[in-house]
Amino acid sequence: MLLKIKQGKLQEWEKWCSKLSTEYLESARETIVEENLIRESCRIFQEGDQSYVVYIHETEGDAYSKLPANMSNPLNVEHFRKFHECLEKIPLTSVAYDIQAKTPTV
Asked: Quick check: helix, strand or coil at residue 44?
């Protein structure tokens, strides 16, 4: 997923990401397990004066095996609040290609 960081929100998003990676790390690990994820990654990059986020969810199965976040968990509630406060989704216009390695036969 590609997102744009809203103007003036870069430091706030970076601060939140730092908290997820340190102070809330164990709780964050529990939430990704609940969502059937093996990894959640947020990468920040800049193009000119604009900052962007590449968000990656990795599951054991296909991309559709991710489960919804448990919104009774306070960490998820805060994460979604920060997400919507700091980030803006960029709509996908098309898929240029999506190639997977052929599964070897045994």
From this structure: strand
